[in-house]
Design a protein that fits this description.
alpha/beta; Rossmann fold; six-stranded mixed sheet; 34% helix; FMN_Rdtase-like_dom
Length: 203
Amino acid sequence: MPSLRALVLVCSLKKSPAPSSSELLGREVLAALADHDVDGEVIRVVDHDVRFGVSTDEGDGDAWPQIRAKLLGTQILVIATPIWMGQPASVCKVVLERLDAELSETDDQGRLLTYGKVAAVAVVGNEDGAHHVTAEVFQALNDVGFTIPAAGGTYWVGEAMQKVDYDQAGPKPDTTGAATKTLAANAAHLARLLAAQPYEPSA
């Protein structure tokens, strides 16, 4: 069984070493992927100087090209984002905007470089909105060529108007853990299928 690599992009608004619930859940996804012979790494995006824009390189010290190179070397992308005002975090939206550039990047057969890569989403927050955020992020990732596995999202939301975050909560709900395990199993399975039998050129 061929080994796979995953990249978790954590879209917390907080720089390291501040605690991050998004990073915690993202690392839990990576740990679950390890059960399926997937290794990888976690990048907290705000720790790097990722510029606004919709190109592969915005110049002037832009850190996105280095992150993009790691992404292109993996088979699974995990976006881990908090919910703010019912929306994906602004950092998540910057990542999606940078991925828009992939629509202009193709291989020698005219296929997007993201074809054959699987995307999953992990969402945390202490307000409702996890399904909405997951839907927004999945639609954007699918638009730029990623393939979405069955049950490819996991999330945790705390009680509305309270201040307990995922990294501060007590025993985690079985539902979140089960969703994370299913996400990992399905993402790894799909990534292997696509590696063995890539998408055909459409023209």
